[in-house]
């Protein structure tokens, strides 16, 4: 099952935000995230807020777009009543779950609602996630016609036994097909990979990265497998059926991916993300890492506006009930104090190639940076130019870098 919602104060039924949100929203970019919580099968490693058909408890997939559109319409009223400055969406991201289990027409209807209620900036980035076996050429063409600009395919691996260990259902041969169909439709393409799967060798991983590069995606993500409590994978490891991922092997896999991607013309811009050019970076995810504002639509979705964070009811049935009754689906929220916001800024921006200014850390922070340079965790030339940029080694120990920055009270 998905992890529990965070603690916080109850959210009001009307969804109104505290006055601080209006002040904090000035000057921030705005995006929209739409969570589509449906999956055909639950992957053994997955801890996301997703549901198979047998887990819906009366909620209906066919009704989902209408409920999400109801929240989108409500969101504009909430922001207006809360006196938050209205901004068009610079990015829209449909994630899940598997958004493309819904008909393309439903995804386009939800995007149309975002366009109607908020507007989209010129050149807005509009992405949907998709599994290689959840879309066909007609679906992708319809999405592109409806305003989508980008698709992110959950490739995960090119090796059949690795996909089987992850409970992924697609054939590796499907990936070149869907990439070609997306290109034919005029969509930018991102491929997602996972490394450190039990039973995956360094040779297996090389095969997957090389297969991904061969498709020449605009963007590629590579994330280490995390064994989450309560998942099927965690139970298999606890019973000794699968081996726990090796930290040393995962480090070797990361370094290999970075080497292969760099040689192929990809540049890292976030610890786990590479792109062929700055214009192909995931602008939506950059908004998260830079602390921008976004409205999260759907069951369990999180939102952030002006230093106020809130989250929706998790289950699709509970979410549908609240929206149908005319209530906000938000069930909890927290107002971030200055210390928490600064901690999150350092935590997230440190992962970016160009995300954290050394000057913003104060004199104490600059002393810490000197030590990080000495330990080959931070690039010396970039630091002299005013930017905290992780070295190759620093990316392997990004959590250590963040901990040292925060422990030494870098903010003055």
From TrEMBL:
GO CC field: cytoplasm
Residues in Radical SAM core domain copies: 24-267
Claim: Transmembrane is one of the keywords in the record: no
Gene3D superfamilies, alphabetized: Aldolase class I
Location of the protein in the cell: Cytoplasm
Keywords: 4Fe-4S, Chaperone, Cytoplasm, Heme, Iron, Iron-sulfur, Metal-binding, S-adenosyl-L-methionine
InterPro entries on file: Aldolase_TIM, Coproporphyrinogen-III_oxidase, Elp3/MiaA/NifB-like_rSAM, HemW-like, rSAM, rSAM_sf
Major location (coarse): cytoplasm
GO biological process: porphyrin-containing compound biosynthetic process
A GO molecular function held by the record: 4 iron, 4 sulfur cluster binding
SUPFAM superfamilies recorded: Radical SAM enzymes (SSF102114)
PANTHER family: COPROPORPHYRINIGEN III OXIDASE (PTHR13932), RADICAL S-ADENOSYL METHIONINE DOMAIN-CONTAINING PROTEIN 1, MITOCHONDRIAL (PTHR13932:SF5)
Similarity remark: Belongs to the anaerobic coproporphyrinogen-III oxidase family. HemW subfamily.
Its job: Probably acts as a heme chaperone, transferring heme to an unknown acceptor. Binds one molecule of heme per monomer, possibly covalently. Binds 1 [4Fe-4S] cluster. The cluster is coordinated with 3 cysteines and an exchangeable S-adenosyl-L-methionine.
NCBIfam families for this protein: hemN_rel
Name under which the protein is recorded: Heme chaperone HemW
